[in-house]
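Backbones bend. Shown next:

***
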Amino acid sequence: YFHTAFFNFFFWITYPAMIVIKLHGKKVILSARGGGARLFFQKYRPIVKPILSKADLIATPSGFLKEAFKDVLGIEAVVIPTLADLHQFHFHHRDVFRPLLLSVRNFEPIYDIDCIIRAFKVIRERFPEARLGIAGSGSLKSELESLVSSLNLNSSVTFYGQVSHTKIQELYSKYDISVNASRVDNLPGTILEAYASGLPVVSTNAGGIPYIVEDGVTGLLVNIGDHEAMAQNVIRIIEEPELGKTLAKNAAQYCKIYDWEHVKTIFIPMLDSMMNQGGCCE
């Protein structure tokens, strides 16, 4: 049983490991992760399909990856939710949602913090008291700080840097709405953390995100790069607190599928089946 990501990780680790394991006659459970899977499969299909086909079981954390395996490679995978230790996060009931926004993603192009900052600019024009907290680090830090300055938002935006688990819990209790602007993604753990903490989520619909954020049910979705729509959805939650409460309640309930008590009801029977019948994925 081992994890795989794609691109360099696949070629340097997964590929040789699969060959060695199969040469020794062992069964392979491959746990696949990565928002860029479909692109990777399309680019390297002739190389990756033969080696991935040798896995006895391929597990993915979301329907998004399962579909990528099926659509591009013709390989069946099974969905086993990622185990998430969400017990450390405490659900805070909110009757109103203040214009206090939190972003917890690193400062890299695929996470498009630029979009969040521009959305916040629109929100602050409506609510001058609005505040944005940004937790993370990365290669675009100076560019993002410059953008904040150019939009005259220095007094209302706080960069926290990379934060500890204890600190992130404090931030989730301090802010009222979680925002995510990924351009490429699969199953962001930070969205699950926000769910567990009682923050309604406004996110882009990148990659596998629509599989964990049901628009209008557990969160609100916008198109990639659409900062205006992101701003309007945040404003909607602020002005319609009943909507925010419903989203938060539904999202907290959804989190339970990532608990071991649920995951084991899927994983253990599949493992037993593979061991007894020679594999689940042909």
Q: What stands out?
A: Residues 83 and 258 are 5 Å apart (CA to CA). The chain has a mean pLDDT of 92. The chain has two domains: 2-83+259-277, 100-257. The radius of gyration is 20 Å.
